[in-house]
Request: fold
Amino acid sequence: MKVMAQMAMVMNLDKCIGCHTCSVTCKQAWTNRAGTEYVWFNNVETRPGLGYPRGYEDQEKWQGGWKLGKNGKLTLKAGGRWKKLANIFSNPKLPSIDDYYEPWTYDYETLLNAPAQKHFPVARPISLISGKPMNVSWSANWDDNLGGSHENASRDVMLKGITDKVKLEFEQTFMFYLPRICEHCLNPSCAASCPSGAIYKRAEDGIVLVDQDKCRGWRMCVSGCPYKKVYFNHKTGKAEKCTFCYPRIEVGIPTVCSETCVGRLRYIGLVLYDADRVLEAASVEDDQDLYEAQRNVFLDPSDPAVQRAAELAGIPGDWVEAAKRSPVYALINRYKVALPLHPEYRTMPMVWYIPPLSPVVDVIADTGHDAEDKGNLFAAIDTLRIPVEYLANLFTAGDTKPVDAVLKKLAAMRSYMRDINLGRDPDESIPESVGMDGETLYDMFRLLAIAKYDERYVIPTAHAEQAHALEELATECSLDYEGGPGMMGESGPFGEGSGELTPVAVENFQMLKQRQTSDTISGTEKKGRVNLLNWDGKGSPRGLFPKKGKEDDH
Amino acid sequence: MDTFLFLIVPYLCLAVFVVGHYWRWTYDKFGWTTRSSQLYENRLLRWGSPLFHFGLLGVIGGHVVGLVVPKGWTEAIGVSEGIYHFLAVSLGGLAGVATVVGLVILVYRRRTVGPVFMATTKMDKLMYVFLAAVILLGMWNTVASSVFGHYDYREGVSVWFRGIFTFRPDPALMSEAPLGFQLHALVAFALFALWPFTRLVHVFSAPLGYITRPYIVYRSRDEDREGTRAPKRGWEKASR
Reply:
């Protein structure tokens, strides 16, 4: 047994209202730079829908993830090492910018410079790829709230086998939101696809990162990831991906997406797992056994044998304590209500989801029946096969039994807690019917519904004796590096962002400063352009007024 | 003049090549990339890039055989002048044609596809001029030496080239060579001098290690290299 620790996340889809706050705050924190305009480390999809990039789940097309070879061995779906090298000059499975969407800005200058006229001037969309005017026809969430679903949603690959049953008419459909970040897999196919070996899994906390100094821009990770969560920065020519906000995690605070989630639906915690059994679990024959196989790789942190092995593996004591209190472990293995997204890709994903009960509840409520009654809910879960089958396609490779079990637990929690809240005697037969006892069900309710901050996020800090080694906890002056502050933002002689790597904190500081004081939109320089949206109201932006005879800058 | 062109210039260019790469590696690992433009356009690249790159690999292989392997060696294993010449012109010509066709597609793409052209730096343009010149001169030499009169470069250019690396170069061998070969060699050395400052550095990151390394890379905060930079003088750890 080789114990390793993994920082993992669970999202409770019942609570997601699709507000995109996670996406926006993540974008502001990580991908507000030139070259990453089209990149969303965190995105929220409306399901049924195509997702972002369009139809990324169709692995017959994109060939992402792993598959079982004829000899029962796990191989990359897009082909092995030699095939990768043979295709290195032109990646045949790389999504084009159209599969994501062409990013754009608006020509605000027209609004400022237009002469007095009868009709109000219009700011036209301008492509950030070609710099030319464009027609906006797609985006990262174009089919939000089933918009245009009569055209798009039917192309959702997860509807395979149930298409004819699903009615996508507005009144009769079901819908929920699916926020997605990088899965920080135990068996990451992006890392396995990287010819340069630049993508690595951190031994301490399992976060998957791209070494920007080692990446050579071969783009195999982009096509190798079945979730399409590694992106190509087209200005720097390097791959970038969700970092699980490692600078925040290292000091014990949750990721930006979790911290800003208004529905408080995200849970972060440690999971201990047996690294020796990952490959075996990822190689089980039947896709539908992968969920159970992955669950069995996780180790129970309250087991003394596991604790001893963890100590031998060099995992600090407070990390094992944190693993015991981990909400993620509890939701996955104690309450068994969290399910992995697409286990059939065989990457052993580590961001899990509690499937939503609300599509079922909505249907009952619409019929005028009591939507919190256990009998009604159980009957509805059994009758409403379409949402259940759809969820099973997402979370259990099509096996409806685990999804049924989870939904019934959520339904049981609803009816059981209603009795308590109304001051009636709790009905102990309700938890029994889903194989739980009243106390466990109450604990689950507390974690899911009350969801206190320090119960949702149990994040042990990286160790003080290692503090000097942390990238972000600057024990030296963080501005104290070659080039120094104020040298940022100039394009190097070899293209955007060349030169030595800058610490993230310094980069963000300089970037914000530059954005607030610059006259230009990212990436394009237009003479005489004044962007008042970035003006903080202090002083006069350069270029707003014509120069007087002699004046110093500002 | 010959001493300058075929003795001093090559050594200067090679010095820039070596020192330039060392400097680029220490200063600009982040800028060391293929700077792929596949995200913008794929249809032309799908044909142009493999044609160009695989063609070029063949051309480089041909140059290794032609320049590095002495004539005596191939004759010793029984390859006669006629067979050698036939193989060199046919295989070399094939690789050359693939390279040129690929290059034409790629340059056309770079010029006509808006986003790709926008992402082209000044260094790219300069490099393209030299690279295209070297390739076209090389093609011309292959054609010219088979059509108009034969020049055996293996007794001229190749000996001179090997002399550079054994520090016994003979510039007189080059001054006897046809103008096409002289120009090809000079422009090639100019390209070597330019090399470390262009995207051509990606040649040296050909990922051959991928064949043997384990699929999943684990990394820890190791003791030698802590954080993103080496410890400052006087701040090294007390013990290793």
User: Anything to note?
Assistant: Chain B has one domain: 2-208. The CA atoms of residues 184 and 198 of chain B lie 20 Å apart. The mean pLDDT of chain B is 88. Residues 81-112 of chain B form the longest helix (32 residues).
